[in-house]
Amino acid sequence: MQQRKPKRDDRLEVEVERIDERGLGVGRAEHESGEYRVALRRALPGERVAAQVLRRRGNKIEGRLLEVLRASADRTSPPCRHYGSCGGCALQDMSYAAQLATKRENCERALAAALVKVDVEPVIGSAAALRYRNKMDFTFGTRRWVEPGEAEGVQRDFALGLHPREQFRKVLDVEACEIQPQPFDAILASARRIALEQGLRAWDLVKHEGLLRHVVLRRSVATGEILLQLTTSSEAPELVGPYVAALLAAHPEITTLVQAINSRGATVAMGERELVLHGSGSIRERLAGLWYRVSAASFFQTNTAQAEKLVEVTLEEARLSGSERVLDLYCGAGTLTLPLARHAAHVHGVELVEAAVADARRNAEENGIGNVTFSAGDVLAWFGSAGAIECDVAVVDPPRAGLHPKVVELLARIPARRMVYVSCHIGSAARDIAALAHAGWRATRARPVDLFPQTPHVECVLSLERAP
Ligand SMILES: C[S@@+](CC[C@H](N)C(=O)[O-])C[C@H]1O[C@@H](n2cnc3c(N)ncnc32)[C@H](O)[C@@H]1O
After folding, report:
1. What is the pTM of this model?
2. Which residue range is the domain that position 63 belongs to?
3. Closest Cα to atom 11 of ligand 1
4. Contact predicate 27/48, CB 8 Å
């Protein structure tokens, strides 16, 4: 007779082996019908845990932690009151040293899976494992996440905060976030309170109605300036005006406030149009000895102190003598471009977002750096229009999806002798580097830098050279 396979709500005991790239503990469970791979939150390597089955596909199970039967020495108490429900952090149960070891192993595993042979150095850890972020992106929602045990009859149709894990239609009211700067807690509370007092409605993701969509907060470590970007579904000055006035009155520490208007279905904080309602529209940040103007739409590394380390490591790996022509693809507002330019003959940056390129140009000018040029547009399109490319060293820092396969092909053929791949998603980087290997590029070093404590994410600087 065939054995019954595990089904929803069954209890299994799991030997946890590792943390996967989503931050889930992954391990093995013995069952009368065979062995199963179980992935579950909040379970650490080396632990034996009891899990409730949530879903099963083949021999893969997603479970929920019921009980830790044998705890790891790396287990710690999560500092955040929302941890568990909030989708923002996944590793708060783990000591920071263990998080760093896990991130290194995950880099090694992803590279080995793509057959990229390179030693991964220990991860450069962040001095601050909490309160390290300089930017947070919060969402307004009409379906508030209700915690178990909350009183009956609580308001459920308005929330401002973060999405609970895997619940993209719901929003958890964040009262305090341990990885954001302290002043953001109070600003967020006011943004929620004033909206409710003024009877403003949150954007409904399903019905596509309502006004308030996102609040993005950015704070400069160097100057303390705070930028608030409010995304709304329409301009609605008669509603937005009093809302913004009340927010600014309650929080004079907000130095600039920008309204972004996004009437489309897609849930992005970036708008079709931007109006600067208060201040200059940007904040100034200091990084690696240079000043940067960061506007609402520009990409800027979210952990300023660790971004310094990332710049340092990238510079070390670029090994510039002063005579090189450098290509910096996916250059954002120039955080790598400008430091590279101080050690090179010339750097050309390419970046999709026009506002970031405008920031990059202004940043170069304000820092007195003249040996840089920029192109605004898609990297692939730029390759098509750039003609013969002259470059000794290439730096690429793509978004999480990595490089377009055609970009890999074009990049493989540039006349550079060295390439530095700065990756925020090691799986994508491993795939791209494996593809570059077909064209004679080989990885010589992998140096992870942790910009995202408490989460499974890690940056990794990979050096590539042309095989002789
Ligand atoms: C990980 S960020 C790196 C930014 C910059 N190197 C830094 O350290 O601040 C990736 C950048 O790539 C840009 N980007 C995304 N897709 C792009 C594309 N197809 N072509 C050019 N730039 C793109 C994004 O706007 C973003 O600024």
Report:
1. 0.92
2. 11-70
3. 330
4. no
